[in-house]
Design goal:
By secondary structure, this protein is an alpha/beta fold. It is 30% helix and 24% strand. The protein has 2 domains: 175 residues, Thiolase/Chalcone synthase (Peroxisomal Thiolase, Chain A, domain 1, 3-Layer(aba) Sandwich), CATH 3.40.47; 149 residues, Peroxisomal Thiolase, Chain A, domain 1, CATH 3.40.47. The two termini are 37 Å apart.
């Protein structure tokens, strides 16, 4: 009888380490209510966020938080900087338009033999960049990839806008992505989408080549997040729920098979609607939005980092996100290690 060799087994991308950096400063709803016309009750009932971490120090940006997370990751996983083949950074708040924040992070942590770049996919930044990393792993082009998701959302948040300023927080997460031929771990499937209609409903108007920075764009507060909340909510509820069910059906996964749903932490109602559509009891829906807020593309990795002690090798996780663009998608992933 033919016996399948390891060479015949498809290589998959596996997360083999995850570490996070969170700023010290906590902006809670009580303090926020002194800055803008809102209340803790209003924010909790509509969004589900009680506090968020904010990087307050001048002269620090996304690369600072990302570098701190990468240093922790390299230390915890025993990885030498010279062994890293590639570093990807998913962010909508780069230090500068160029050079890439990925390059800046490499310099700050001593990664000199790697290449990499930034990926901007809004709040879907993690799943889009993880799929990118998986492509390099599966083809053998890279063996050790550091995937950084980092956002200083406070830098583009208008704290005079009561509709958007309660939403966002700052954080960075670094992951080590490596190949595995274990048939019961790694990234098995993903479904990713974009729809450019989203550019009308969630965007940052000024600062790019279309509307370069001028005195007028600054006065008009056009360098901050602009969002049509109702439209974004409607799209997010339907798209996140639909794509999460789609990946279950495509891979013959039942709600009983799933260990946890790891959703983008944008809004408690969106998360709950997605879990309900998937037929999951609330214990299987991982949520930390209350204490971190929406950290954009960093939110799913931040959940994985916070709850990693719960995961067992082989646990089926469904990762689901929706973001500016519009971008959205889901992933079928099996956790790769026991702590």
């Amino acid at each position: 009888m033919y016996k399948q060799s390891l060479m015949d087994i498809k290589k998959r991308a596996a997360i083999t380490g995850v570490e996070a950096y969170l700023p010290d400063y906590i902006l809670d709803n009580n303090e926020l209510s002194k800055m803008v016309d809102t209340t803790d009750e209003w924010i909790m009932s509509r969004i589900g966020i009680r506090e968020r971490k904010i990087l307050k120090e001048d002269g620090l940006g996304t690369s600072f938080m990302g570098a701190q997370a990468v240093k922790l990751l390299l230390e915890k996983t025993g990885t030498k900087p010279e062994d890293v083949d590639m570093l990807l950074c998913a962010t909508v708040t780069p230090d500068m338009l160029f050079p890439a924040t990925a390059n800046v992070i490499c310099d700050k942590v001593g990664i000199e033999n790697a290449w990499g770049y930034d990926i901007n996919a809004g709040c879907s930044g993690f799943i889009f960049s993880f799929e990118t990393a998986a492509s390099f792993i599966e083809t053998g082009r890279a063996k050790k990839i550091v995937l950084v998701t980092g956002e200083r959302m406070s830098a583009i948040t208008d704290y005079t806008d009561r509709a958007t300023c309660p939403l966002f927080g700052d954080a960075a997460v670094a992951m080590l992505i490596e190949p595995t031929q274990d048939p019961n771990s790694g990234l098995f499937d993903s479904i990713l989408h974009v729809d450019g209609v989203g550019r009308k409903y969630l965007y940052q108007k000024a600062g790019g080549s279309l509307y370069p920075a001028t005195e007028e764009t600054v006065k008009n507060r056009e360098h901050f997040i602009i969002q049509d909340g109702q439209t974004v909510f409607k799209y997010a509820v339907s798209r996140m729920a639909d794509v999460s069910v789609e990946i279950m059906e495509k891979n013959n996964i039942s709600s009983e098979d799933i260990a946890y749903l790891v959703p983008h932490q944008a809004n408690m109602r969106i998360i709950q609607a997605t879990g309900k559509r998937m037929g999951l009891e609330k214990e299987k829906i991982l949520i930390n939005i209350e204490k971190f807020g929406n950290t954009a593309g960093t939110s799913i990795p931040l959940v994985l980092w916070e709850f990693k002690d719960r995961f067992k090798k082989g646990d089926i996780l469904i990762l689901s996100a929706f973001g500016a663009g519009f971008t959205w998608g889901s992933m079928y992933y099996k956790w790769a290690y026991d702590l």
